[in-house]
Amino acid sequence: MTMITMRKAYPLLLLSVLLASGCALIYRPPVFQGNLLEKSNVDQLKEGQTHAQVQSLLGTPPIADPFHAARWDFTASEQRGHHRRTVKTLTLWFENDLLVRWEGEYFPEADAALVREMGKFGNLPKDKDKKGAHH
User: What band does 103 get if pLDDT is binned at 50, 70 and 90?
Assistant: First the structure.
């Protein structure tokens, strides 16, 4: 190859490498799917609560499982940027319409973190009643 041809090929090669790298330079917003449960509501769960009481705290599970009517699964996933998706499930068990136990994981601070992160981009409405809000 001549020097002139190599000079022309260099920018094309650089562009090809950038495109092949998966465009890691492009911002990808965080993506949450499923039930984002508030920590304050999960902290209020108590053995002996009825389905209705639990539903008022957490809402209904996204999918009603006809094979496990006494079990509620709240599943949520999170994907930030180019990282792998994280999936967490909080499972509740009922007997005779009463909550008997729960276990698993959820994203306890996801709502607050998402608001902080998206606030950087100015696409969320400002709460005028909060301290420090811009008018």
Answer: very high
Separation of alpha carbons 123 and 44, rounded Å: 32
Helix, strand, coil % in the chain, rounded to nearest 5: 30, 25, 45
pLDDT at 49: 97
Whether residue 8 contacts residue 66, with contact meaning beta carbons closer than 8 Å, is answered with: no
Phi, psi at residue 79, to the nearest 5°?
-135, 125
Q: Where are the domains of the chain?
A: 27-119
Specify whether the CB–CB gap between 56 and 105 falls below 8 A.
no
Four-way CATH pick for 27-119: 1.20.120, 3.30.70, 3.30.1450, 3.10.129: 3.30.1450
Place of tokens 């696409």: 123
